[in-house]
Specification:
heterodimer; A: 380 residues; alpha+beta; Cytochrome-c3 Hydrogenase, chain B; 3-stranded antiparallel β-sheet; 8 strands; B: 192 residues; Beta Polymerase, domain 2; two-stranded parallel ribbon; 5 helices; 7 strands
Chain lengths: 380, 192
């Protein structure tokens, strides 16, 4: 909001005051503002204010070819871009009735899980930093970089890959890639006890995170919370298992849950999910050499591609929760309408506003990071 | 068990009047319903069929038909299936009823649709500006809103002609595409 348009809310005289956290603030995730009303250091009310990252992607996509939109999709969520690509491709494949070769599906799973680990490491460190501990943040970002190296080798891009296209993936793995993935996974797994020692046995973090921003299971269901935040309330739900896509029904993995539903439980669920993702990628690496064959199915000329009319809703599990695309085609060369449902649209706005009430000012940043709010998903 | 429950759901929906149900895949059900029957249907889905999770509300502008299509995607954690309820409302005046009392997440989606499409949801708790705080033009996601023409009308084009480009042009180089063939045309909003 421009300063000349800012008008303080008219209130009767009191000792309450207003404080804006964001849009540029180290305690906030991305360009996002959270306007607080405080009494002392207690939050009386909070109001989320988005729009600083609005790029009009849904409108832009209506004016571009189906294949051009692939360049837009990953940019909707910066830390975890792969689920965006994959779910958009799943939608186009569903509309066209394309059957993706099995090898491509396994490659997609590998990419999705690598991205999940990277996003979890990122937010894990961010959460620690909001409690004053910067070492896990440096470690998390440094370890995430190893995954970005793998992405660079696999797809050519570090952050935005655009590796998936409708019908499959763009290229196959380079020689010896499975071995390098295995090495990185071994290293990451050996790091996990260090994270536990540094964070989960650290009394500062224990006292700050336990009981901070609790959500009960009933509240979570009512507010539409999904993903790790929902699993932290004890509900064993994961789109990968309960509404399976790609080849997740052939993989073995646990769905970690915790009971308390507070910031501590949410961090712990993410920590345990890293372990499960490592387990999934190992299965993929073991399976890939047995899968010969094409990595994409034949598609029409992508520059003159009329997708059959219809609509579809495709959901995937991103690192933040349930992510879905509603794509409508009128039989033309461009999508008639695309709508993205990001998980943060729920927990970065309504849920955050609810949880902030009554907490202390220093916990606001922690609640936001423990929910894994991703502002670009809200703004689109 | 999953199959039994969804069959039960099919039967339940088949009893309602003026409703068309189509199973698009094992976990997806497409329901089309008249706009006045939709809140009752959602109430039924949530209260009797355990569809407690409103995944999203999508809005599609069918400008040729003069209608907005609203799609409510509801998920059931028990039967593990997704019901997409489609309904259509007239484009003018674009007023509909809020389902906030049935599904709390609807508040966000209704606010978003109000901002982007200009649909007014009666009874929604908060329809104030959210993403487009500084915006006072027409709702931008409508099909009759032309972004490029809006830009041409409201912003000035700046001629970018630095010295290095002049040097290039003096030597016969420069921008290869003539101005009127460049990607951004000078279309303006039709005043009629």
């Amino acid at each position: 909001m421009r300063p000349e348009n800012y008008e303080a809310q008219r209130q009767p005289p009191s000792y309450d005051y207003e404080l804006n956290i964001g849009p540029n603030h180290p305690g906030i995730e991305g360009n996002y503002a959270f306007k607080l009303r405080l009494n002392g250091d207690r939050v009386i009310a909070g109001r989320a204010d988005a729009g600083y990252l609005h790029r009009g992607f849904e409108k832009l996509m209506e004016g571009r070819l189906w294949i051009q939109n692939l360049a837009i999709t990953p940019r909707i969520c910066v830390p975890d871009p792969v689920p965006m690509e994959v779910s958009y491709c799943l939608a186009v494949e569903d509309l066209c009735g394309l059957v993706v070769p099995e090898r491509a599906q396994w490659l997609r799973v590998m990419q999705l899980e690598l991205s999940r680990i990277a996003a979890h490491l990122f937010i894990f460190g961010g959460h620690a930093a909001t409690t004053g501990m910067y070492t896990p943040m440096f470690w998390g970002i440094a370890d995430r970089d190893l995954i970005l190296d793998l992405f660079e080798e696999m797809t050519g891009g570090r952050v935005y890959h655009i590796y998936n296209i409708p019908g499959g993936v763009r290229r196959d793995l380079p020689d010896g890639f499975g071995e390098r993935v295995a090495n990185t996974l071994d290293y990451l797994e050996s790091r996990l006890p260090d994270y536990d020692n540094l964070l989960f046995t650290n009394q500062v973090f224990v006292h700050r995170a336990q009981g901070c921003g609790p959500i009960s299971q009933q509240q979570a269901l009512e507010w539409g919370v999904t993903g790790p935040n929902l699993r932290a309330t004890g509900l064993k739900f994961d789109v990968r298992r309960d509404d399976p896509y790609l080849v997740y029904d052939q993989l073995e993995f646990e769905i970690p849950t915790e009971e308390p539903g507070d910031a501590w439980a949410r961090a712990l669920v993410r920590r345990r999910e890293i372990k499960e993702s490592i387990r999934i990628i190992r299965q993929v690496v073991a399976r890939l050499p047995t899968l010969a064959g094409p990595i994409r199915c034949p598609i029409p000329n992508p520059l003159a591609w009329n997708v059959p009319a219809g609509s579809t809703y495709t959901r995937v599990e991103s690192s933040k929760g349930e992510l879905a695309w509603y794509v409508v085609s009128d039989g033309g060369e461009r999508p008639y309408r695309t709508h993205v449902r990001g998980p943060s649209q729920m927990h970065a706005v309504q849920v955050l506003e609810q949880l902030a009430i009554g907490c202390r000012i220093e916990d606001v940043a922690q609640i936001m990071f423990s929910l894994d709010a991703c502002p670009p998903e809200v703004d689109r | 068990m999953t199959n039994d429950l969804t069959t039960w759901l099919d039967n339940l929906l088949a009893e309602l009047d003026g409703i068309s149900v189509r199973r698009t895949s094992r976990r997806r059900l497409r329901v089309e319903v008249a706009s006045d029957a939709l809140p009752a249907l959602l109430e039924l889905l949530r209260g009797r069929a355990s569809f407690v999770h409103l995944s999203a509300i999508s809005c599609v502008d069918w400008i040729d038909a003069g209608q907005f299509e609203l799609v409510y995607h509801c998920w059931s954690y028990e039967t593990q299936s997704l019901v997409s309820v489609h309904t259509r409302i007239p484009r003018e005046p674009g007023v509909y009823i809020s389902v906030y009392d049935i599904y709390t997440p609807a508040a966000f989606f209704e606010r978003d649709i109000h901002e982007m499409f200009g649909v007014w949801f009666e009874g929604s708790p908060d329809l104030s500006k959210f993403i487009l705080t500084e915006w006072d033009g027409p709702p931008p996601m409508r099909k009759d809103f032309d972004s490029e023409a809006w830009v041409n009308q409201h912003f000035d084009w700046q001629d970018y002609h630095p010295d290095w480009l002049k040097d290039l042009e003096a030597r016969g180089g420069g921008i290869a595409v003539p101005p009127d063939e460049q990607r951004f045309s000078r279309r303006t909003v039709d005043e009629t």
